[in-house]
Amino acid sequence: MSEDSIHDNPYIKVTYQKDKGRSIFSKVFIPRGTVVFVDNPYIANIDSLYKKNICSTCFKYFSETCRPNVVVCPQCNDYYFCSSFCKQYQKNETRHSSIECEWLQYFGNYFKHQLLEDDKNIVLLLLKIIAKRIHQNDSLSFIVDNDNSKNTDTNDSYNLVPRDVTDLIDHLDEYLSLGINNSETIEQQQQNPDTSITDSDMDISKLKSIWKSDFKKFINISRVIQHIIDRSKHQEILSVGIDSDGDMIMSENNDIENTIQTESLSKSDLNILKLLCKVRSNFFGLWHNGLQNNIVEYNRGGTPNTENDTDSNTTTTTTEHQKNIEFLWCGSAVYLSLSLFNHSCFPNCTTLLEYNNGENGVFSFNYTKTPLRFSIVTLFDIEPNQELFITYIPLNQNKKERNHQLKSSWLFECNCKRCELEQTKSKEIDELFNSVCCRNVKCKSGMVFPLANGYGVCRVCKDEFKSPTSINLDVL
Ligand SMILES: [Zn+2]
Ligand SMILES: [Zn+2]
Ligand SMILES: [Zn+2]
Ligand SMILES: [Zn+2]
Question: Which residues form a coiled coil (predicted)?
């Protein structure tokens, strides 16, 4: 299999579906446990909370008390490596360029303490992308209509595969069409209860309110980014397609909550918003159980999978050793080709990160491998011409919770088989789903990943289980 290429992949092909856009289908029968695709991140960044504990290059965890070789960037004092080796041999997707270094210093002085953690991290991720593009002389215009999803020629898979971050789907138009003026808040709605409002009306108005407040936040973030970039004289990004009336000046006391109107967005705002929306629709949270094994796992956005399910009947304590399943959300990454895999709440594939942890738990970093290379692996046998799915969210939630999360963050309604069958056969589908999930009481979240010996392993807690002998997935 050729790395990073879907075109000559023996297992899968990209097709275009009218209702869903780009999708991945099987070309042939694929046995469960097959690695069908691998990809390296376009960009990856450690969250500010864990910067001091995780190497930016190799993602090795170092504790407060054991850091003899740790090196910090002497300019910004805000970028850490496990060793001078990792500082010297940085990777394209995590490179700490001098441009980024300068921005981090400014960011640390003026904005770091004003922003919430999540917003701070998305700013840092975007700055890293822009610094990378300046470093590589890539285009800084994100407004250009590069929407490959409009290409409906199913034979032309080359044009369906994103080759740059500009090719990623964003939902900026949907956000813009909401309008952001005179938005009613949830609190205001609750003060005026109207008994004729149905559950789904309420859901929609709640969602609109979430989307609007998200979008206001995006505008704020885009202004912060423009402010940082502007100062260090990289004017090209701020002058992309700008009219003679130019940019809005951002004042630090700007009361964005009340004053922003769609019409007042400059083209420079829209340019950064476009990039922000692309990243937000496509980034993955990087999970690290640093205290345990130096293993990085990841899930797309969402919350950690560590909640116990309320249904205790199906759980059996199959293991005496209770493993530490405290995961840190330590960073985020954008993978270009991962966006081709659609979501299902009962996916037939999972994502796995390769992380070279060396022999016997002794860390040995092999520079030829990237620690953040992901693989897509099949969880079940897949017949020819079936769609391959992954999940974007934790799956141990009920249908309402899952759909709320998908709609609020990815703006789509899930119509997967599990969601469909939950209407009529909720008990059966629950049992079927639980039978393929981790049975560790403290974890019980991951779908069990098939091993060759008739066992399966939980990708989250690493417990092993005997695979169910009679599992009938025909209903899916
Ligand atoms: Zn390192
Ligand atoms: Zn620096
Ligand atoms: Zn679903
Ligand atoms: Zn588990």
Answer: none
Tens of pLDDT along 240-268? Answer: 433 333 343 333 334 444 444 555 888 88
- 149 C-alpha vs ligand 1 centroid, how far in Å? 38
Proximal ligand: closest to the CA of 444: 4
| C-alpha 69 – ligand 2 centre gap (Å) | 17
> Distance, CA 196 to ligand 4 centroid (Å)?
44
- At 85 the three-state DSSP class reads helix
Question: Hunting for tokens 């829209």 — which residue is that?
Answer: 270
Domains of the chain: 15-42+282-466 (2.170.270.10), 45-135 (no CATH), 148-280 (no CATH)
> Poorest-confidence range of 9-13, 26-30, 316-320, 388-392?
316-320
Q: How close is the Cα of 452 to the center of ligand 4, in Å? A: 18
| pLDDT for res 39 | 87
Of 237, 250, 210, the residue nearest 111 (C-alpha): 250
**pLDDT at residue 160 tops 70:** yes
- The answer to whether residue 104 scores a pLDDT higher than 80 is yes
First to last CA, the chain: 28
What pLDDT digit, counting tens, does each position of 35-71 carry?
899 888 999 999 998 899 889 988 888 877 778 899 9
Q: Which residue has the tokens 């403290």?
A: 442
Query: Ligand 2 mean position to 68 CA, how many Å?
Result: 20
DSSP conformation letters of 224-284:
HHHHHHHHTT-GGGTTTT--TT-PPPPPTT--HHHH--GGG--HHHHHHHHHHHHHHHHEE
**For residues 347 and 392, is the Cβ–Cβ distance under 8 A?**
no
Q: Is the pLDDT of residue 301 over 50?
A: no
Average per-residue pLDDT for the chain:
76
pLDDT in tens, 372-400: 888 888 999 999 999 999 999 888 889 99
Task: Enter the DSSP assignment of 442.
Answer: T
Question: How far, in Å, CA of 214 to CA of 168, rounded?
Answer: 19
**Ligand 2 centroid from CA 46, angstroms:** 14
- Is 384 within 8 Å of 27 (Cβ atoms)? yes
Tokens of 300: 């797309």
Q: How far, CA to CA in Å, does 237 sit from each of 122, 226, 259, 263, 473?
A: 18, 9, 24, 21, 51
pLDDT value, residue 366: 42
Q: How far is the CA of 89 from the centre of ligand 1 (A)?
A: 9
* Dihedral-angle region of residue 14 (phi above 0 means left; psi in -120 to 50 means alpha; beta otherwise): beta
**100 CA → ligand 2 middle, Å:** 7
**Which ligand has the shortest distance to the CA of 363?**
1
Q: Report how far ligand 2's centroid is from the alpha carbon of 240 (Å).
A: 27
